[in-house]
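Please fill in the sequence for the structure shown.

STRUCTURE ENCODING:
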């Protein structure tokens, strides 16, 4: 079935597209210096290659290339424009293709487009840490697109500039790869079947890049004499002398990291409290004042977690009402208040009230900080930036463990009052410093402050990436406005549709599974666990201090080098499988070497401690960072705040349960308690493997395709019709 084309008068015929021979004749392209020529002069290619500035959906050629996402179900930029122009039948055919991997290509009919075919290829999301791999993937995009076009008898093909939009591939590097691969293909035997290859650009900036580089790969006849004194090719695509200076990009990267790291002081407070309370409740001066009743120990932990639950619940409303930036100081004020009460407590009631208020603070911050970092972060490093939440939790845990270890030698109530009171300092710093950080641009768009949102997006991208910033802003603006027009802000929205129910299941599930790892049993009651392995007194606190340093080191390595490469799902499966192993071994050791048994094996004790340390390492390269990243990135903007609130409430509800039950269970059922975590993580592994999607590298606006939402082609149409002269919606992802 062919969809009618309403805009036939705007169709651009092949004859109207100038070849580069004509561009040389008109001096729009100039002969390159001799030392810049990369390939031999081939006169026939001057009539085979074209550069065209305009709308790729208007070209009457055999095939146009769509810079698609992996779902092939449409998106922003070129992808959305092609789907809108082709009509709904293109989406119907794309549904039958079962997606496409990065670097691969698939072909469909053109339907309402002037072109006979659409070649869909998935470009890489650029990362400077993986430049070589990304170059290979982008090269594959052009090669596979050319091959599949020829296989389907296409005589001409038009390419957009793949991956240079929101996927952030540097335009000069991407252009070099495109020209090199097309030149190689044209020089091959199969390349002779193509009559025309058209490079399509939209902006003046992109056109100027192509104009400067085309002569190096397709030099004019006049350059033949010059070429005799030069070499022909540069094997290091994307790394030549014309690569853009990295200074501006490095400064923007540093700025983004600084924002995420500073706001994550809120996560530091979470980690510090988790670590310090494990030390405080074992100190002699603390026990002399409050006693050693297991139910009181459990209450000190669980009342805090209960406060966290209600703090996270209220933070959802506060984030929508006041914004992410203004909600963080609310958490800081609660932290200062709660810490003051805990440090000054003279009885159990005052201590517990202080714990509840402190919990309210951490509930607000633990929900808001990952949300803020998610909405500030560029897609290609979002895993790293949101992963800083877990890094700062771990750093807070380290500081707390060593503060606790040192404070035990103070022979007064200061030994426990000082560690609890020290939390006031980072809370005060965050309260003051957050005032100087930008608002979330997505929240600004939600409340109608569009110009402010645009300024923030430009601020985050920098002067060197104006067009990328423009593309991201337009995609963000259009998606948020469309969502706001069709959806309410009720909690029932979280399960109103199958895709939303799946999002909620994944987000809540990953946080609940995070508690099932057993990591907080170690964090809260580590010294008690070491006692069950025969390590007592100050040695238990020393081991806890060393333990606290292991996880953050592993976490930093993971979020810096691995998370944005391997994605979210594989680390979660690895973590769940690892905890099955570590807790099985730990249970076996405690069962066969009970505390107080003179025949207990010292080697078994060391093995048990090793299992606890390995649990921390495995947590830090799986659920630790991934749970915060995944739970905060899966929701659409208009439900992200309330969704993250519900998710964080689930986290703290199970955290409270763990905190209350653990001391009693370790006292009464001993090693059998560890077998509970073996069973839970086995179930987690199966659920994650079967039901969790992969979200690595997706923009927040592209999650619709991941979870099966329908593409809104009217949205793309409206965006297209209202675009300005720059028309950056046509930048390929």
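FILLED IN BY: designer on duty
SEQUENCE:
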């Amino acid at each position: 079935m062919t969809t009618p084309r309403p805009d036939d008068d705007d169709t651009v015929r092949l004859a109207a597209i100038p070849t580069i021979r004509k561009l040389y004749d008109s001096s729009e392209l100039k002969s390159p210096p001799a030392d810049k020529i990369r390939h031999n002069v081939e006169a026939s290619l001057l009539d085979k290659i074209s550069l065209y500035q305009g709308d790729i959906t208007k070209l009457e050629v055999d095939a146009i290339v769509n810079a698609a996402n992996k779902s092939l179900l449409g998106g922003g930029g070129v992808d959305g424009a092609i789907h809108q122009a082709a009509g709904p039948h293109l989406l119907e055919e794309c549904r039958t293709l079962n997606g496409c991997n990065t670097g691969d290509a698939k072909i469909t009919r053109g339907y309402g487009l002037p072109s006979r075919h659409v070649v869909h290829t998935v470009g890489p999301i650029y990362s400077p840490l993986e430049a070589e791999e990304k170059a290979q993937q982008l090269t594959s995009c052009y090669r596979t697109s050319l091959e599949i076009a020829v296989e389907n008898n296409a005589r001409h093909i038009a390419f957009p500039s793949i991956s240079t939009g929101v996927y952030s591939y540097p335009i000069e590097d991407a252009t070099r790869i495109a020209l090199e691969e097309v030149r190689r293909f044209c020089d091959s035997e199969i390349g002779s079947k193509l009559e025309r290859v058209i490079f399509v650009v939209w902006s003046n900036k992109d056109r100027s890049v192509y104009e400067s580089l085309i002569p190096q790969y397709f030099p004019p006849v006049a350059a033949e004499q010059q070429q005799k004194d030069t070499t022909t090719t540069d094997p290091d695509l994307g790394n030549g002398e014309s690569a853009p200076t990295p200074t501006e990009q490095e400064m923007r990267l540093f700025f983004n990291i600084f924002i995420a790291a500073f706001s994550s002081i809120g996560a530091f407070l979470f980690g510090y409290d988790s670590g310090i309370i494990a030390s405080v409740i074992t100190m002699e001066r603390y026990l002399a004042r409050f006693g050693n009743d297991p139910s009181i120990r459990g209450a000190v932990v669980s009342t805090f977690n209960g406060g966290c639950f209600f703090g996270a619940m209220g933070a959802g409303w506060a984030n929508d009402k006041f914004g992410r930036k203004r909600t963080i100081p609310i958490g800081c004020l609660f932290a200062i208040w709660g810490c003051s009460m805990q440090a000054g407590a003279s009885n159990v009631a005052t201590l517990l009230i202080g714990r509840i208020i402190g919990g309210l603070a951490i509930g607000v911050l633990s929900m808001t900080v990952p949300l803020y970092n998610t909405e500030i972060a560029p897609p290609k490093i979002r895993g790293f930036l949101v992963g800083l939440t877990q890094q700062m939790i771990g750093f807070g845990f380290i500081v707390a463990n060593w503060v606790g270890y040192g404070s035990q030698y103070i022979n007064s109530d200061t030994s426990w009052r000082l560690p609890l009171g020290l939390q006031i300092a980072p809370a005060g710093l965050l309260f003051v410093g957050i005032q100087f950080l930008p608002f979330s641009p997505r929240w600004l768009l939600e409340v109608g402050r569009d110009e402010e949102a645009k300024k923030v997006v430009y601020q985050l991208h920098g002067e060197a990436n104006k067009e990328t910033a423009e593309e991201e802003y337009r995609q963000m603006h259009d998606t948020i406005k469309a969502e706001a027009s069709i959806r309410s802000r009720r909690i029932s929205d979280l399960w109103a549709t199958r895709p939303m129910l799946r999002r909620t299941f994944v987000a809540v599930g990953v946080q609940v599974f995070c508690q099932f790892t057993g990591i907080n049993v170690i964090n809260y009651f580590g010294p008690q666990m070491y006692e069950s392995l025969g390590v007592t007194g100050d040695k238990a606190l020393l081991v806890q201090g060393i333990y606290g340093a292991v996880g953050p080191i592993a976490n930093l390595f993971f979020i810096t080098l691995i998370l944005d490469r391997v994605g979210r799902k594989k680390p979660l499966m690895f973590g769940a499988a690892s905890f099955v192993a570590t807790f099985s071994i730990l249970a076996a050791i405690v069962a066969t070497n009970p505390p107080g048994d003179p025949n207990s094996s010292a080697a078994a004790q060391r093995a048990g401690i090793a299992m606890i340390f390995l649990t921390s390492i495995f947590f830090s390269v799986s659920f630790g960072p991934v749970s915060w990243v995944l739970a905060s990135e899966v929701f659409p903007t208009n439900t992200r705040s309330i969704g993250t609130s519900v998710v964080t409430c689930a986290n703290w509800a199970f955290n409270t349960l763990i905190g209350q039950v653990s001391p009693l269970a370790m006292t009464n059922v001993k090693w059998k308690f560890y077998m509970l975590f073996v069973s839970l993580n086995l179930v987690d592994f199966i659920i994650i493997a079967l039901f969790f999607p992969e979200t690595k590298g997706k923009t927040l606006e592209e999650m619709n395709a991941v979870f099966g939402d329908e593409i809104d082609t009217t949205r793309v149409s409206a965006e297209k019709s209202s675009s300005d002269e720059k028309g950056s919606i046509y930048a390929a992802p």
